[in-house]
Amino acid sequence: MCVKSSLAKPIVLGSALLLAVARLAQSQAAVIPRPDTLGANFDADSPGQGTPSDYDFLVGKWNYRYQARNPKTGAYTPVVTGVWTGTKSHDSFVFEDEFIIARPDRPRSIVMTYRVFDPVEKRWAIQGIGVQRGVWQPGRSWTDGRDRFLVQDNPATKIDNETPEMRTKVRIR
Question: What's the confidence (pLDDT) of residue 29?
Answer without folding.
Answer: 35
